[in-house]
Amino acid sequence: MSPRPRKLVLAVIDSLKPAMLERAVAEGRAPALRAILERGVYVRDCVSTFPSVTPVASATIATGAGPDGHHIPSMNWYHRGEERYVEYGSSFEASRTFGIRRSLFDTVYNLNMAHLSRERRTVFEHLQDAGLRTAGTTYLIYRGRTRHELQTGGGVFPLIARLAQFRHAVWGPTELFYADLFASRRTPCRSMLGRPGLRDQHTGCVGAYLVEEDLFDFLLFSLPDNDTWSHRYGPEGQLQSIAGADRALERIMHVAGGPDAFLDEHAVVVMSDHSQTPIAWRINLAEVLAGWRVLGPRDPERGAAEIAVCPAARSAMVYVLDPERRERLLPAIEHRLLDEPGVELTARLVSDVEASVRSSRGELRFAPGGSLTDPRGASWSVEGEPAVLELDTSDGRVRSAEFPNALARLWSALRCPRAGDLLVSAAPGFEFVDWGGVDHVGGGSHGSLRRDDSEGVLAFAGTGPGSAAHREQWSIEDVAPMVISHFRVGS
Ligand SMILES: [Zn+2]
């Protein structure tokens, strides 16, 4: 009989930029990450979803599916069935604009229990179905098979939960520690309201407890503070927040007896959900599209609105509210958007089997199936202006250095049943202001189809193939299958 697979820790460092990780390691600020890289395989261009924002990417990491499979279209989207915006917390101000209670409810409950497709199992569900013990720290996607009641003890977050009338239990991994809302065990760890800068510490504290007590086969170890820091200080600022993430990893290694002992006993995957780029300019899409009646966040005359506008950092979506008027309004809206220097690309479906993507350079149409093969092995046909996506179509291949995995990512985003009619990707240096009026000018952001937003870290030790050359183009879609095959659980 083959030996039992090692326990596996999946550490997701939000917005981790490969160049910044490399510098942090070279400068001696990340000894735990260094130990993992020295033992394992390192990929510096693992491509994210489009849009390259956390709710979409987290759902992909947890399920292995793109937005067409997991059904989470963006950070902010329009719910056609409920005729309202859904906001997963682009900023505190954006949440306040839609109502803190509603935004928290969407993020904590609806994202997992209502919006995330039931057709795809999460990695937690998959492993629990096979009898394995799973665990997770505060992460947007936590859906699993074990019921967890809301915490009713002391602390600040339970108070807010009471005020927001949170009552419901959730289904999560075997062990779930989500802010101070859900905690499957009593630990000395406090998340302090999930305050930025303290969340990695909470993860480190809970993770050390889980390692010490031997409570999991699979642990999703979430390190979100790097994203907040990088939004504020720009990607260069990550040197400091990567050191913070490293301390959380050191902490779980320490209770196992140090890096070597820990890595003998555990396989580890470290990854980004997406990257970040510097922001110099803001653009307000609701103002740009003021020629149409834009649905407001708490619109007293919802019936009068023509379009819904959903900014999400360096990406956005536009919905035409009356389906009968879609064909007439979309070309004019597209035209107006492409007049803006901050808008680089717009994309939409032209039929069930074909998509159109436009920039100031013209229009490119593409469809699945055809004679061209992309770096992940999918086949496509294209016509029109390849310069729109800087496509190289020589030798029967189709690829783009600037817009990695462009066709598959756009197609999956457009085929998501909750996606807008028009998807938008920002030009370098631009960010769309969120519904709370917040941007990150002078700092960093992400969301676009470009490589600088989209290419992140994937490192694995004690699991996965022996070389990065195993795949020409790695994607965050590859991680859930890698974890599942590590435990030799059939899919
Ligand atoms: Zn972010």
Describe this structure in words.
The chain is an alpha+beta fold and 491 residues long. It folds into 2 domains: 7-276 and 450-486, Alkaline Phosphatase, subunit A (3-Layer(aba) Sandwich), CATH 3.40.720.10; 281-445, no CATH class. The chain is 32% helix and 24% strand. It is built from 17 helices and 23 strands. The protein has helices at 18-26, 31-39, 54-63, 67-70, 92-98, 100-115, 123-129, 156-163, 199-212, 225-233, 238-255, 259-265, 285-288, 326-338, 406-414, 451-454, 479-486; strands at 7-13, 41-47, 76-79, 84-87, 134-136, 146-148, 170-172, 175-178, 182-183, 218-223, 266-271, 277-278, 281-283, 307-312, 315-320, 343-351, 354-359, 362-373, 379-384, 422-426, 430-432, 444-445, 455-461. The strands form 6 sheets. It has an 8-stranded mixed β-sheet with strand order 2-23-11-1-10-5-8-9, with helices on both faces. A 7-stranded antiparallel β-sheet has the order 14-15-20-16-17-18-19, sandwiched between helices. It has a two-stranded antiparallel ribbon with strand order 3-4. A hairpin with a 3-residue loop joins strand 8 (175-178) and strand 9 (182-183). The structure holds zinc ion.
